[in-house]
Amino acid sequence: DVAERKLVREFKDAHSDVVLGLEYSLDGTMIVSGSADKFVKVFNVATGELVKSFEGHTSHVLDAGFRGNGIIITSVGADNAVKVWSLDTGEQVRTIAGYGKQVPSVQFVGRTSTIVSCGGDGTVRLHNTDDGKQVRAFGGASDYMYAVASTSDGNFVISGGEDGVLRVWKLADGAAVGTYAPPPAPDAPNVQAAK
Q1: pLDDT by residue (tens digit) across 93-143?
Q2: In angstroms, rounded to a whole number, what is the distance separating the alpha carbons of residues 103 and 123?
Q3: For 113, phi and psi rounded to 5 degrees?
Q4: Where are the domains of the chain?
């Protein structure tokens, strides 16, 4: 309870290693988590009970999220892959490959079947989870990309990476909207050695 600053629910023994990604379902009834233990798990928020556990990543799961319908889940990991899962069947629907390095971030675009993800290979990509096909790649990034998100209306994608630059694109055509560079580093103080 945020207002009361009280712990409402604790998910004990949820994972056997570090939890690296979390997201609430849009209706707030479930949480999906991804962990260094290579599992993706879904929990009931009200009871804390495990709803489903998904296994298939061969390395750390770095992020996970729900599609707007709450039935499809996606996860990404250090195994350079995007996985799509069905909460109904408990099965893996597909793997989306093609990244040259780990994939640290993924998000569904609004309530659609489209996801945006980014990779350590400097790419930001849009995929359709229904068929696994890449819709587009967003240009301009060249360094390790750590985070990606889309606006709630699905009009824009933003990503940030190791170079500290935030990049914004139009989702519809992939056109670059702008970049936001980090502020310059302050000048180093004048330091002199004393004898």
Answers
A1: 999 999 999 999 999 999 999 999 999 999 999 999 999 999 999 988 888
A2: 9
A3: -90, 5
A4: 19-180
Rounded to whole angstroms, how far apart are CA atoms 58 and 37? 10
- Class at the top of the CATH hierarchy for domain 19-180: mainly beta
pTM over 0.70: yes
Q: Note whether 8 and 19 are within 8 A (CB).
A: no
- For 26, the token pair is 């849009």
Q: Residue 174, exposed/middle/buried by CB under 10 A (0-12, 13-18, 19+)?
A: middle
Residues 6+ apart with CB under 8 A from 120: 99, 100, 101, 102, 103, 104, 144, 145
Give per-residue pLDDT as tens, 13-26.
899 999 999 999 99
d(CA 195, CA 189): 19
Helix (H, G, I), strand (E, B) or coil at 185: coil
